[in-house]
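Q: How do we represent a protein-ligand complex in a form that can be generated token by token?
A: Start from the inputs.
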Amino acid sequence: MSPDVLPIAAEPYEFPLALDRCALLIIDMQRDFLEPGGFGAMLGNDVSLLRRTIEPNRQLLAAWRASGLPVLHTREGHRSDLADLPPSKKERGHGAVSIGDSGPMGRILVRGEPGHDIIGELAPAPGEPVIDKPGKGAFFATDLQAILQSRGIRQLVVTGVTTEVCVHTTVREANDRGYECLVLEDCAGSYFPEFHAMALKMITAQGGIFGWVAPSANVIAALDAHRDAGFVKTKVTMAS
Ligand code: C5J
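Then emit the structure tokens for the protein with dicarbonimidic diamide bound:
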């Protein structure tokens, strides 16, 4: 294995992390999903199940940035006129509140509102692209693929929320576009622990039908050791 390909212990087998063509993709770590008073909580979900992913993501992000590797963030949300919100998505669930309604953190899942923002602990750094997506998958109706292609990125280390919805949809989209995806189990979360566990199993089943799964400690340890051996990638700044 080349010195700039790090073997990461993973399921269903070792993931060859290629430092010249990998990126970290953090999905929807937004206040509306993670904070008390946000959309997720208003729907009756226990946000602590998602909040336990914050610290692992923070540590991963620190190691990833220290190695000079590219980071991209996504946010699920809609235009303030809701023109990109399909009526089916607005109406589904018949809940007391829905996307576009006013809540304690502004209009729910609307771009520019406080609840739509990424949580402070994982705030994007200057130069890290933020992909605003109207759907569950990060490739649908966004410029994500153009950004990845222009940077020569072929591998995605994927984290965020929720495991079985936006993380899974994005991994499936990426898989069909030829990207290799490694999902970090402790950095992804769901309001439904059983869905989280099963979604991860679906990724690694059948010899890794959608990709690989590993704990973040395996990636952090590999990056730390590589930096200790003198590696830091010359930072490529990506316009957001
Ligand atoms: C959901 C997401 N669960 N980011 N969005 O509606 O997974």
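Residues 193-208 form the longest helix (16 residues). Strands lie at 5-8, 15-18, 22-27, 71-76, 102-103, 106-107, 130-133, 155-161, 180-189, 212-214.
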